[in-house]
UniProtKB/TrEMBL annotation:
Carrier of the growing fatty acid chain in fatty acid biosynthesis. The lineage of its organism: Bacteria, Pseudomonadati, Planctomycetota, Planctomycetia, Planctomycetales. Belongs to the acyl carrier protein (ACP) family. The keyword Lipid biosynthesis applies. This is Acyl carrier protein. Keywords: Cytoplasm, Fatty acid biosynthesis, Fatty acid metabolism, Lipid biosynthesis, Lipid metabolism, Phosphopantetheine, Phosphoprotein. Residues 5-80 form the Carrier domain. The modification O-(pantetheine 4'-phosphoryl)serine is found at S40.
Length: 129
């Protein structure tokens, strides 16, 4: 079983390098976009750095699914993710806190799913798998 503290420390390092933030900013609750200032281009860099740091392969869009909120998916109604969309999120983002998101499922809150803790859980499951 992967050591959670080691995983957190490596992820902290990755995010410090990728986003130019200080280690005290990288807490488990920190959101990548809102708290750490990540932009869409940074997500590719983060995935690349995680692959390198943990010596594993992360398939495209597995960690950060791109199609979740596309207009074609039919998951958005009146600026909110509907029940079908939330169910899809549970499948595609099993390491994210979907229950918390479901309390206020506005589209703009989707970015808050991407937290340091979510990255730790994702990497832990990859290493254990």
């Amino acid at each position: 079983m992967a050591d959670q503290e080691e995983i957190f420390e490596k992820i902290q390092e990755v995010l410090e390098d990728a986003l130019g933030v200080d280690d005290d900013e990288v807490t488990p609750e920190a959101t990548l976009v809102g708290d750490l200032g990540a932009e869409s281009i940074d997500f590719l860099d983060i995935v690349f750095r995680l692959e390198k740091a943990f010596e594993l392969k992360i398939p495209r869009a597995e960690l950060f699914p791109e199609d979740l909120m596309s207009a074609d998916a039919g998951y958005v109604e009146d600026g909110k993710i509907n029940a079908e969309g939330i169910a899809a999120m549970r499948t595609k983002l099993p390491h994210a806190d979907i229950d918390k998101f479901a309390e206020d499922p506005k589209v703009e809150n989707v970015q808050n799913l991407y937290t340091v803790d979510m990255l730790c859980k994702f990497i832990g499951s990859k290493l254990d798998g």
